[in-house]
Amino acid sequence: IRKDGFSIPIIFLTAKDTENDMLTGFSVGGDDYISKPFSIKEVIARVKAVLKRTEKQNLSNFKTDKLSYGAFVLDFNKKELSIDGKVIELTKTEFELLSLLAKNPERMFSRENIINKLWSNTPYITERTVDVHITRLRKKLGTYASLLSNKTGYGYRFNTDQLID
């Protein structure tokens, strides 16, 4: 998997518990190694930790500091969006939501995915909160509102088909 260029997390779940087996697992590219016996709670905690760690690495490996398609420019360093040379005022949450979708244009994000990414430490956030932020963001995008597309029952995505490079 690593030789093919995939950077997905790899966790070994195994009955082999010697130090040599564990070292071999890590040396061939594993991100974690869990040997039997283990509890489901431990596995869930380790999976979350590995996902959090690899997500941070993937975001730090994001090569460009701008995403631009013609008149649409999302500047990740300045934390601002400009359309036709005019800066569009976005709240922090709106910018983070737009960035999340724009950095993963081919990925469909469910409302739950978005809540976990943007509001993971905030209790009592409902799925309607995502819809409200998307609606506000679409209003601010104006003629570019169709960049944020949704598929009923699946979620939202950044629709690059609507952009002219």
Query: The biggest beta sheet, please?
Result: 4 strands, antiparallel
Write the element-wise H/E pattern from the N-terminal end onward: EHEHEEEEHHHEE
Structural Rg: 20 Å
Could you tell me the number of beta strands? 8
- List segments where confidence is low: pLDDT < 50 over at least 5 consecutive residues: none
Mean pLDDT: 85
The portion of residues forming beta strands comes to 15-25%
* Oligomeric grouping of the chains: single chain
Percent of residues in helices comes to: 25-40%
Number of helices: 5
The secondary structure category is alpha+beta
N→C terminal distance = 33 Å
Shape: elongated
Strand order of the main beta sheet, please?
3-4-5-6
Mind explaining what this structure looks like?
- This protein has 165 residues and is of the alpha+beta class.
- Helix content is 39%, strand content 19%.
- Helix 3 crosses helix 5 (127-141) and helix 4 (111-118) packs across helix 5.
- The longest helix has 21 residues, at 40-60.
